Structures are given as C-alpha cells and as structure tokens.
From TrEMBL:
Keywords: DNA-binding, Transcription, Transcription regulation. One of its GO terms (biological process) is DNA-templated transcription. It comes from the Bacteria. Belongs to the LysR transcriptional regulatory family. The keyword DNA-binding applies. Gene3D superfamilies: Periplasmic binding protein-like II, Winged helix-like DNA-binding domain superfamily/Winged helix DNA-binding domain. Coiled coil: none annotated. This is LysR family transcriptional regulator. The lineage of its organism: Bacteria, Pseudomonadati, Pseudomonadota, Gammaproteobacteria, Oceanospirillales. Pfam families: HTH_1, LysR_substrate. It comes from Marinomonas communis. One of its GO terms (molecular function) is sequence-specific DNA binding.
Length: 300
C-alpha cells in the first residue's frame, strides 16, 4: 500500500524554513545549500499540490495552508526524533547495571571509582539512581544498592563495604587567624555547631567519644550531607562529617580538621542485591570489583 509521506529531508527543510522564514538560514542550520533547501520545499509543495510559502523578493511568508501543515507536522517530527533517541539509548537487560545509592555517598565516594570500573568493563551500561526512599526500592529495576546500614530488601544478599568514621571539620576562615596547632576537641564548642537533620546524635556521640559535654548544642541544621558540607566550607560553623565525604575538601584545603583525628562510629556501608540476581554477570562483576577495590585500599 502506497503511503502519502514526503521525504524526511523535505520535512526537515520545511520545519527549519518556517522557524527562520528564510531558506538561507534553514540551509545553514541543516548544513545544506540554499538551492537544495529551496528545491526540497518545491518538491514538498508539488507533492501536496499546495503552496506553503509566498516568496516576496528576499522574504518568505507562510501561507495559511503552510501554517496548518506546520502545526500538524512538528509534533510528528518530535515524536520520530524521540523514538529514535529512545532506540539509541535503549537499555539491554543483559548489559545494563543499575545501581541505587545514597546521593552524597554516590557523589563523593562512588563516582571516582566508577571511572575505573567503566574503563575495565565498557560492555556494561551503568545507570545510577538516587536512593532517597528505601521503602520505594523496586528489586525488578535495580541490580545493586549501596546504603548506610540496615536491611533495605527482604531476602537480599548484603556485603560489608566499609565502616564509618566521622571527623569534626570547619573552614579555615572560621578560626579567624587563630593558631589551631594546639587545638583540642573541646575547642569545637567555641564555634557554631552545624547539624544534619537526620542524625540528631551526631554531636552528642562525637562529644561522648571525647569525654566532653555541653549545655547547648543549638545550631543550624541541614537536610543533606552535601548541604552540611557546603555550609562548613563557607564558614558557618563546625560540622561532623563522614571522612569519605570530607576527604576531598580536606585535601584541597577548603576544610580543616583541627579538633582531633577521625573517630569510629558503630555504623557501616553495605552493598546489597536481590538474591535472584546473585548470578547476573553485571552484578557479580561489579560486586567483586568493588569489594576487592575496597579491600585493597584497606590494606594500604
């Protein structure tokens, strides 16, 4: 059955010509010559047996027929483009590795490692999702989660990644030129204390580890670690941060840790996956690689 569909080149030339009302500018956008665009428009008008443009010297004016056709054609072109893009980015269930992780953990700890993994295993298409709500995890669409303690999946297989350490940090500017070389943990209480809203025991636990007490722990609170990190870097006060989050800022000097060495917490980070995905190639490969990577760092 014959389909009354003009060439895609003619349609692309028509769409660009309507937007620019110029064959010349349409040709520049499409990397064609002006005469080629003009010829495609003539072919389209002959195909439709309708004038789409009125040529007035060097100006183009869209006819009412052209305007009506444009209104119908553009959504179709958009739909074709979107369908093609979906095909280009189509995920193959056999090679896609979908990881769900706490956002800050992914940004400050996982991302630098993924570069090395992708170079070693380019056959896998990596997709990282934010683990904002453990209750909404869909085991069918996620292969691995990297999370902070606790059991997020029933019948999941879990592996210990690393124990958590935290450190009290601040911006150098907060000390206002004070010599921090002789600072002790107690000096932290001389500055505003910054809090993570979801960890109300952060400061009490840190103080208890240093045999300290305080009558008041009031201070600004933030919903996410990256907010807390930025607040500390901008000199708002002293923050208790996991070392994996504070590490890069301590290395580049935007944060300092004058109040003592990191301390251990009873918490850990885990790698988990559904039991029925334990034999998937991408799960096994990533699990083994990450656990070996962490073990190698621990031995150094």
């Amino acid at each position: 059955m014959r389909r009354y569909i003009p060439s895609s080149t003619a349609l692309k030339c028509f769409e660009a010509s309507v937007r620019h009302l110029s064959f010349t500018r349409a040709a520049q956008e499409l990397h064609l010559t002006q005469s080629a665009v003009s010829r495609q428009i003539r072919n389209l008008e002959e195909f439709l047996s309708r004038d789409l443009f009125i040529r007035l010297n060097k100006r183009l004016v869209l006819t009412s027929t052209g305007a009506a056709y444009y209104k119908e054609v553009v959504p179709l072109l958009d739909s074709m483009e979107n369908a093609s893009l979906r095909m280009l980015h189509r995920e193959d269930e056999k090679t896609t590795l979908t990881i769900s992780s706490l956002p800050t953990f992914a940004s400050y700890w996982l991302m630098p490692k993924l570069v090395a993994f992708q170079k070693l295993h380019p056959q896998f298409q990596i997709k990282v999702r934010s683990l904002d709500d453990a209750a909404k995890i869909d085991p069918e669409s996620i292969d691995i989660i990297l999370h902070y303690g606790g059991d997020h999946w029933p019948r999941a297989v879990s592996h210990h990644l690393l124990n958590e350490q935290v450190v009290a940090v601040c911006a150098p500017s907060l000390l206002d030129g004070a010599d921090s070389s002789s600072f002790s943990a107690g000096h932290a209480l001389e500055y505003p204390l910054l809090h993570l809203s979801s960890r109300i025991n952060g400061w009490p636990d840190w103080l208890a580890a240093h045999d300290l007490e305080s009558d008041s722990l009031a201070g600004p609170a933030f919903a996410h670690f990256h907010m807390l990190l930025e607040a500390a870097k901008h000199g708002m006060g002293v923050a208790i941060l996991p070392t994996i989050i504070a590490e890069q800022s301590l290395l580049d000097g935007s944060l300092i840790a004058p109040f003592g060495a990191p301390i251990d917490t009873p918490h850990e980070y885990l790698l988990s996956y559904p039991g029925d995905k334990a034999d998937l190639e991408q799960v096994v490969t990533f699990r083994d690689w990450l656990l070996n990577s962490v073990a190698g760092v621990s031995k150094n």
